[in-house]
Amino acid sequence: MSAIRVLLVDDEELVRFGLRTVLEAAGGFEVVGEAGDGAAGVRAARELRPDVVLIDIRMPVMDGLTATRAILALPEPPQVAVLTTFHVDEYVYAALAAGAAGFLLKDTPPREIAAAVRAVADGTATLSPAVTATLIDSYVERKAAPRRAAALERVVTLSDREREVLTLLGSGESNAELARRLFVSEATVKTYVSRLLTKLDLTNRTQAAILAHEAGLLEG
Predict the structure, then answer these.
(1) Domains of the chain and CATH, by start
(2) d(C-alpha 164, C-alpha 145), whole Å
(3) Which of 25, 37, 133, 202 is least surrounded, with the fewest CB atoms within 10 Å of its CB?
(4) Each residue of 13-33: pLDDT tens digit?
């Protein structure tokens, strides 16, 4: 299996050094480049074509949210994970809604960083139930009203099974948990999720979770 190619974008050299050290020590990763601001990060992503970009949300020249949108607009874009010192803030929520696969706290224990980046790389990254709850409490519930109608319009065409899968994604369930709840194999779950994302024109599970909450599928 080829190494996961990672681009680090953060204006703090110490943060980049720490992430590089952790990933290279874990094995299976190649840090192909670093950038100290958002604009340089977009250029590096275009030139280096990494599998995963780890990007800080607050940076000079171009902030991480703007850079994330630009990176995800590239042909065959990499997966993006936002680096933050906050569990969830408005910028992180906006980045997730724009298509970032997840986020990584800068104080994440080293042993968990490699696993998190692998999950982002293979598209199985999930928001933990605790983080999902924070996301809802802090932002989705407060902002959902004007978006509720649009979200409901998107999910109205779903079958009962597709709606069930979307609801479980909204709860931050992993593939293994989905398989257990739906009484199917993990391979079947991957097929369900892939078809659902395609049908809803979503980039990843995180966007699906946000849509589930905006449509009110987890209420009641």
Answers:
(1) 4-121 (3.40.50.2300), 144-214 (1.10.10.10)
(2) 22
(3) 25
(4) 998 999 999 999 988 999 999
